[in-house]
Amino acid sequence: MTVLILARCNDRLSATEWRGSRQASANYWLVGWVIAGAIVFASGGCKQSRDDAQAREVATRVRTEFLRAWTNYEKYAWGHDALKPLSKTPQDWYGQSLLMTPVDALDTLILMKLDDEAAKAKEVIVKNLSFDRDIYVKNFEITIRLLGGLLSSYQLTNDKRLLDLADDLGNRLLPIYNSPTGLPYVYVNLKTGQVRDSKTNPAETGTLLLEFGTLSKLTGKPVYYEKAKRALVETFKRRSSIGLVGSTINAETGAWMDADSHVSGGIDSYYEYLWKCWLLFGDKDCHEMWQASIPAINKYLADEVRGELWYGHADMNTGRRTASQYGALDAFLPALLASSGDVARARRLQDSSFKMWNMHGIEPEIIDYKTMQIVHNEYHLRPEIVESTYYLYHFTRDPQYRKMGEKIFEDFVKYCRVDAGYAALKDVVTKEKRDEMESFVLAETFKYFYLVVAPPNTLGFDKVVFNTEAHPLKRTD
After folding, report:
1. Is-catalytic flag, 384?
2. Is 141 a catalytic residue?
3. Catalytic residue at 52?
């Protein structure tokens, strides 16, 4: 008889005492392979166990640091839009608070199971948030942060007061679509419905359907979906003959004002929503628009340098390369590529993003990827590289992405942590700080840090679609 005793799974695995007769030794090869297989299998299990234990430890630290930032917001800026962490003073975007940070951060509080803090945040929102304000607000930011946050938190809590607030906000935002083209204006007065600023961009015209569409589904009011979808379609219809869009467009005339094409700020989330509106709503038009757009992105904007994959700038009409710039905002693209099935390209681009991060221990806002020189040296605590790390870990289960997320988190804490939360950097080289901690740090950056290392059942990934502010929106019929 042969007995194989395996030690408990830790840093060592031993096989001891093989007792048997000459007949047992005749079966040496067979038993040896069984033992070897068992050891390899158990070793893999040990490694997995250690990886999971490490991930749990990092998740606890992320949660602790998030809570620290949130508690300082409560202490120094409660009831206001944001905390300025160096001066320890509040900041309101439009001179009066729209509770930007509580609304933006509520679903993160819920996902991290910070129940007391979530309850307090929800209470201040439902008691104090009013959109009956004689102020002009930027539709894009209000839609992705406030409308998206209210809808996500409603779906997580079933508190209808949050949906009522979302419906009221959506109704007050509708006048932005009253242009001759259906492309939205940039600003709207929440009280009067007056609009202004027709000079806009594809991100601001095309990053609305996830939120307005979800509002339609939940309220039964089709007008929200119809208006936002028309804006998306009208943007797509104005692409060039080679399939690219430009940087600036006039909402009243539909004419392009800047032919620079790229995947950075001002265009980025337009492409994101073409794909995600197909995922969330099963809208075949969105799928067709995505299928028509991604080949042009990969043909004219992708760039091979030193064997690395980057995405730069090109003229929307000719495809001529105009700049070799890539930055913190562009780093969302690996997530989108992975989500849409192009994991190989996503991996390569993520490697480039991580190289940019490691140049100075924190990513700069923009670099020239041909020279690897900084173009804009600030860091705004942006989430995009963490978002892509999370998506790649989800789709590949490759542990390198958890390690990557941990490295980015360690650097984030090392260079941006201050007494009253987290501060952006004026300069990633000198690490000089700036008095800024926007609400998206709590809505997105910390959420993605957490999800990279959190247990897989923390969020039903396949049942939600994240808006561009990391608010998970559930699929609805």
Report:
1. yes
2. yes
3. no
